[in-house]
Amino acid sequence: MRSSLSLAAAALLCAASPARAQDACAENLKWPKVGTWAAYEGMYDEKTPMKTRYAVVGAESREGTDYKWIEFKTHDEKRNKDMVYQMLVPGGGPLEMEGIQEVVMKMGTDPATKMSGMMMKMIRGQLAKSSIFKDICTDATLVGKEKVSVAAGSFNAKHYHSAKYESDSWVDPDVPFSMVKSVGKKHNIALTETGSGAESSITETPKEMPGLGPSK
């Protein structure tokens, strides 16, 4: 279960802490409006092919704070089943990931399950730091604005280089989820398509994970 959660967290763009808000490209990172989605394709961890879709599938307010439901959906080729992860995160953007409130997961036809309450408190920091995209803005410097072409089209994107992570990323704030392309030692990911009208891929009411106690 923990490896699945790590993958889900890794898939969220730029899951960095608020302390990194002054990084070079942080101002470009905002959650898009509800219904917006972006699809990516590439390689993760040098050997794991990725076809993923990120979408904002809902919004809600809790105790005066605005949150958005961010969905990550991918297909497991080996098991021939979809994997869906949804995270309720602060509405400002990916740099606020440490404020994540809930995680909902559904593997293929298995019942959807929800993680919240005490379990979320235990792993919140881990989820906020686990991201294959965290190097996009961490210790990055602006190379310049460049035209970059990917399957989704051509974009005038800002090129950032991270010497620490030996990565290069192209970011366009007008693109849903901001990222156009990112290349590093262990990943190579590019935007393939964008759109609107996204709805939750999970239609059932998720069950609390066994042994985790009531939601808080």
Low-confidence stretches: 1-22, 212-216
Q: What structural class do you assign from the helix and strand content?
A: mainly beta
- Would you tell me the overall average pLDDT? 79
Radius of gyration from CA coordinates: 17 Å
SSE pattern, N- to C-terminal: HEEEEEEHEEEEEE
Instruction: Kindly report the spatial arrangement of strands forming the biggest sheet.
Output: 7-8-9-10-11-1-2-3-4-5-6-12
Topology:
Elements lengths: L1 H10 L25 E8 L3 E15 L2 E12 L4 E10 L11 E6 L5 E3 L1 H13 L10 E11 L2 E10 L4 E5 L7 E5 L3 E9 L11 E2 L8
Parallel strand pairs: 6-12
Antiparallel strand pairs: 1-2, 1-11, 2-3, 3-4, 4-5, 5-6, 7-8, 8-9, 9-10, 10-11
Description:
The protein is mainly beta and 216 residues long. It has a domain at 2-133 and 196-208. 11% of the residues lie in helices and 44% in strands. The protein has helices at 2-11, 117-129; strands spanning 37-44, 48-62, 65-76, 81-90, 102-107, 113-115, 140-150, 153-162, 167-171, 179-183, 187-195, 207-208. A twelve-stranded mixed beta sheet has the order 7-8-9-10-11-1-2-3-4-5-6-12. β5 (102-107) and β6 (113-115) form a beta hairpin. α1 crosses α2. It is globular. 39% of the residues are buried.
What descriptors fit this protein?
216 residues, mainly beta, 11% helix, disordered N terminus, disordered C terminus
